[in-house]
Amino acid sequence: MSVRKWRVLVLCTGNAARSQMAEGLIRAAFGDRVEVFSAGTHPAGYVHPFAIQALKEIGIDISGHRSKSIMEFLGQPFDLVLTVCDDAAEECPVWPGQGERLHIGYPDPGRWSWDEEGLLEEFRRLRERMRAELLPVLQRWIERREGEERERGP
């Protein structure tokens, strides 16, 4: 029996930090069960170097990622659309397509104007928070969906 891979789209505004980090973490944790993509409503045009560094420190390489527009994914089917922007701080994207919606908001670590070490520390905190919060939520979501698939049968 082949195992179905769930299609997950992670959305944010700039697709430079939070959604890129979430994509990398999800791929590393669930790559055998999930196809994950990320995009933004207003792509920044780059992946933040501290997002790359923070994940590199735990063995995840997102240096080949690029900032993408949600327009690249319109019309594609997704099982889950995950927004990771902080509602209190900015407008979070709305996905017009199909797919279950889930929001887990995080503040933008790139907005703080500290020195480089302080800024890098914010990206590390975001990484650890996503590992502690986002990954377990996604694990439960995958288990629930796989259970529903088993109940439906072939």
Fold and architecture overview:
The protein has helices spanning 18-30, 49-56, 116-152, and strands spanning 6-12, 34-40, 80-85, 100-106. With 154 residues, the chain is of the alpha/beta class. The protein has a four-stranded parallel sheet, with helices on one face. The radius of gyration is 15 Å and the shape is globular. It starts with 5 loop residues before the first strand and ends with a helix. The model has no long low-confidence stretch (mean pLDDT 89).
The shape is globular
Please count the beta strands (DSSP E, at least 2 residues each): 4
Please report the distance between the alpha carbons of the first and last residues.
9 Å
Strand content: 15-25%
Mean pLDDT equals 89
Task: Report the total helices.
Answer: 3
Q: Measured on Cα atoms, how large is the radius of gyration?
A: 15 Å
- The spatial strand order of the largest sheet comes to 2-1-3-4
Pairing-aware structural class of the strands and helices?
A: alpha/beta
Poorly predicted residue ranges: none
Helix content: 25-40%
Main sheet properties: 4 strands, parallel
Order of helices and strands: EHEHEEH
